[in-house]
Specification:
With 300 residues, the chain is an alpha/beta fold. The chain contains 10 helices and 14 strands. α3 runs parallel beside α5 and α4 packs antiparallel against α5. The protein binds adenosine-5'-triphosphate and magnesium ion. The site of adenosine-5'-triphosphate (ATP) has 13 residues, from β2 and α1.
Length: 300
């Protein structure tokens, strides 16, 4: 069942189109990775979801309610961690966390204490003195201490060290185990890969790919390095072959995963002497999307 549904969302700032006909769905119990390079429109989408920004066009529903009109109702069931955490400078971290808990109601002090310990946070310090990573920890502890049906996390680990990133990942998987949903924005694919059931890739305000990691893997390419007795004929003409190059006596090229079988059949007939292959990674796919031509002829 879909918990969050964005249909035809366009957001303009004056003449600038930050989001262009975005469609996206997050299902119940799912961790959805929202990835894209800087300035792609991740935070803008999230701000519309939170009812902070009004959509120029399109429909945005969370729990079947309108993200703009029913924001108050919706907020009772979501927890949010912003990308750049600003806290009240004169309150301590612990006071901020308790404030969030009080605003929401409900008593989850055990959970809070456990999280403070796991994130190795000193809750007695004034927020003004926290480092970026520690401010992020405060926001994360506050969010995961709340009982929510949907956690919206905007690049929540950009300031965390690897140890803390692991703690964060446990928190997300914990929430998932309880049947909660998570929208996790990031530009680090490896982080998303470990946690997410499905991902959406956004670039210059447009969703360019959505699907499960398996579905996206079909779009990946295997790198091959092949040396044959006779030169391989018609390699260029084969479907799914890219970036052919020469390396000493061997040929290096990339093959779309779905065409791998065909291509291998073709090259065996030329007598393989040497064969090296590198597994496809989503990172490659991702980088292709980052580097490829932009919309309207490529302004990137
Ligand atoms: N209030 C605003 N007024 C004008 N333009 C804006 C406003 N907010 C965002 N933008 C523009 O919209 C685009 C998308 O920005 P957004 O913050 O959503 O990107 P992002 O994907 O979150 O990037 P990052 O990974 O750097 O956080 C950017 O070009 C940005 O300059
Ligand atoms: Mg952002």
């Amino acid at each position: 069942m879909s918990l969050l549904k964005i249909s035809g969302l366009t957001k303009k700032f004056g003449k600038f189109t930050a989001l262009d006909d975005v469609n996206m769905e997050v299902n119940e119990g799912e961790v959805f990775g929202f990835i894209g390079p800087n300035g792609a429109g991740k935070s803008t989408t999230i701000r519309v979801l939170l009812g902070i920004l009004k959509a120029t066009e399109g429909e945005v529903k969370i729990f079947g309610k309108d993200a703009w009109k029913d924001a108050v109702e919706i907020h009772k069931r979501i927890a949010y961690v912003p990308g750049d955490v600003n806290l009240w400078p004169n309150l301590s971290g612990g006071e901020v966390i308790d404030l969030f808990m009080k605003l929401r109601g409900g008593n989850h002090k055990d959970r809070r204490d456990e999280l403070i310990q796991k994130f190795d946070l000193d809750p007695t310090k004034k927020c003004r003195t926290y480092s970026k990573g520690n401010r992020q920890k405060v926001a994360l502890v506050a969010a995961f201490s709340l009982e929510a049906d949907l956690y919206i996390l905007d690049e929540p680990t950009s300031g965390l060290d690897p140890l803390m990133e692991k703690v964060f990942q446990e928190c997300v998987l914990d929430a998932k185990k309880k049947g909660k949903s998570v929208l996790l924005s990031s530009h680090i694919l490896s982080e998303v890969e470990k946690l997410c059931d499905r991902v959406g890739i956004i670039r210059q305000g447009e969703i360019i790919e959505t699907g499960s990691l398996d579905e996206l893997r079909h779009l990946t390419r295997t790198s091959l390095l092949v040396e044959t007795k006779q030169p391989i004929a018609n390699l260029k003409q084969l479907q799914g072959v890219h970036d052919i190059g020469e390396k000493e006596q061997a040929l290096s090229f990339q093959v779309d995963t779905e065409e791998l079988d065909n291509v291998m059949n073709h090259i065996t007939s030329f007598g393989i002497v040497k064969l090296e292959s590198a597994p496809p990674t989503l990172e490659d796919l991702f980088m292709r999307h980052y580097e490829g031509p932009g919309k309207a002829g490529g302004a990137s």
